[in-house]
Structures
1.
Amino acid sequence: MKGRRRSPATRVVLEKYYTHLSRHYGPTGWWPGETPFEVAVGAILTQNTAWRNVELAIGNLKRAKLLTPRAILNCPAATLESALRPSGYFRVKALRLRSFCRHLVDQYGGSMARMARRPLAALREELLAVHGIGPETADDILLYACGHPVFVVDAYTRRVMSRHGHTAADIAYEELRSVFEGALPADVAMYKEYHALIVYAGKDFCRSHPNCEGCPLSTTLLPGQPIMPDAHAAKRPLRRPGQR
Ligand code: SF4
């Protein structure tokens, strides 16, 4: 983004990680979803559950013809909750989903495309004010559903960065986001792919007990790394699209 100060040293490191991860995994095609609205729904439902459960809930919404903002707002609460049941915390998620749809309909006539045209900073602030939407969910929607250059941070990002000695294990969300956005160019395609790659590496190798052997980032470890423990990060939810 314009005016953002970049750190050349961090950029070199982050680009090296990206290269290693890309070579190992290839294109990920993230985020799964046929429409921007489906992507946003998935971002809301994926909190604290496995992606497989989100797929089941989205499948229910599709079969019941509820995968539009107005259909979600107009259906009885029990119908929506029943459709979302596989995703867990279904009553809470039904409320969150309705809050997002209410905002989308009231402010943008139900159009994700109109919402996506809103300037990034203003839209991020709006989304964060919607009931149940935190920074990670907001940034998932901004990046994957709206195409804004926001780097999505999650528990895996914290783990990888802290175990490689770059940041504290309990670094604040916004601080870690600014590490990536401050070092890398505001490239939407790369941000999408980079977050997906980190999740893949986290899921496959950088678990609570890291399995560095075979990890695409093992050759970038310095003596004394990985740095442990990172108990703060390990306690956070770790399931994302692609994880079964
Ligand atoms: S598993 Fe090891 S090499 Fe891979 S990201 Fe984690 S700490 Fe780094």
2.
Amino acid sequence: MHPFLRFPLAPSLLCHQLTSNRSSQFLQTSFITSPKTRSAGTTSKGIGKTKDMSSSEPATKKQKTQEYVLYYWPGIPGRGEYVRLAFERSGTPYTEFNDGSKLLGILTNPKKVGHPTHFAPPALKLPSGRFISQTPAILNYLAPRLGLAGEKWVKISEKQKEGEKVEVGSEEYEGAEEERSTVNQLVLTALDLCNETHDVHHPVATEDYYEDQKDVSLRRAVSYRKNRLPKFLAHFERVLDCNPENKNGNTYLVGSRTTNADLVLFHVVSGVEFAFPIRVAALRKSGKYDKVFALKERIENEGGIKEYIESGRRQPFSMGLFRHYEELDAEE
Ligand SMILES: N[C@@H](CCC(=O)N[C@@H](CS)C(=O)NCC(=O)O)C(=O)O
């Protein structure tokens, strides 16, 4: 039976995890029968209020909220996780709307979200009521506001707090924008790796089952393991290596502080390690990508992220973007 017909209540594509894998019945069931809301719990920083939004109607575009609301599917970290990490690292309050039965209906309805409507989650509702979708667009918006766009934007924000103006077009402003664009560039490359990792298990059609494209998937996995994954890791290793601020052993992709680029790479490498544990162990052992793995370990232990992981609120990888299929993994 066509996957869409099996889940008439479900939107056509749920990050490809709900409709495209025969072995993810638990996700399918939980989506249809009990749409859950995952709201961030309380942490030591007091972020992520435990507001249950599952039964409440989402605010419309005209209603202003006090805080950011992340609209994303329930049950998987997915691409929503990249947005969560930015909030968690910076200690920024946010809540989530995770009612899978309403999500696409809201995001595609101009009466709910205004212009433009949205293709797919994640989407972020800003305190103004405006919605933004596309993971990198959301991150690029948040970066200067959350101190994750690099040192130069942090300095500007500090000045602004003191009431000092930094003019658009000034050397300082342009320098900060350039740095922010560099962060965005690296975010996009890390997300390319995320997308390619996903495409290994869905190389033909996102709406079809993995089992129905397994032959191509097995071929794609060889190329991914041998060529693509090492190429991406080598790229990031080089970036870490040539950052002059890393001379003392630091592992920042940009400058000398954590940016969205570090957070996204951290999550992608974690996901790749979940999906391809044997291959990643071999790549680790090669010693060629030590800085990339050191970055991952650094972020795991950084303020905000450490507490987030320890809180148990960080959802485990399962059958979302990053999936583990034994037959796709090998040492080389
Ligand atoms: N490029 C978009 C991709 C968004 C996306 O693929 N979202 C998934 C969930 S992670 C989805 O629900 N897709 C539905 C679809 O592609 O129809 C982004 O980075 O946000």
